[in-house]
Specification:
single chain; mainly alpha; 2 domains; two-stranded antiparallel ribbon; 2% strand
Amino acid sequence: MRKAGVGAAAVVLLAVLVFFAVSSWSRRPAIATSSVQPINFPHNVHVQTYTIDCQYCHSDARRSEYAGLPSVERCMGCHKITAADKPEIKKLAEFAAQQRPVPWARVYKLPEFTYFPHKAHIRADVRCQTCHGAVETMTTVGAATGPTLVNDMLNLAGFRPSPPPLTMGWCVDCHRQQNASRGTHAPLDCVTCHH
């Protein structure tokens, strides 16, 4: 009788642990998936071949919460001449002729309860690649983000694996590393990112 009670308790405990792991795993705190875009935009060509800085196109990053996207006019500033005969640039020219913005599909999305100011990170000399990965090598932007079941199970077992990119633990670890290695004052209090 006693063994049956211990076995039942173990099964219940295991079920609770699996439930917490799966429920935690299913809540993605950040999304960065490559998606089909209205115009094929090869970051690798713009950054590696033509050495265009991230902030030329994403100029709001230095003064705003959002990095922003370039206007059609900014793109056409170069593409009136450069590669104007290419099919993707012809699509861009159609948007310009109709005076419509390109309806880009969002790639990076943080939860609504999270505040991430790009400008603070730019001012602290954090490279874009630190969070976004090696975008300069990508033809389609995307990244593996959010919690994983393996990480959650290791955390439940008492291990401390490195958190995946764009999770709260990953950001906090980065702030701690910056504070220790560069003598910065990256904030660690909750209200910095959550309101």
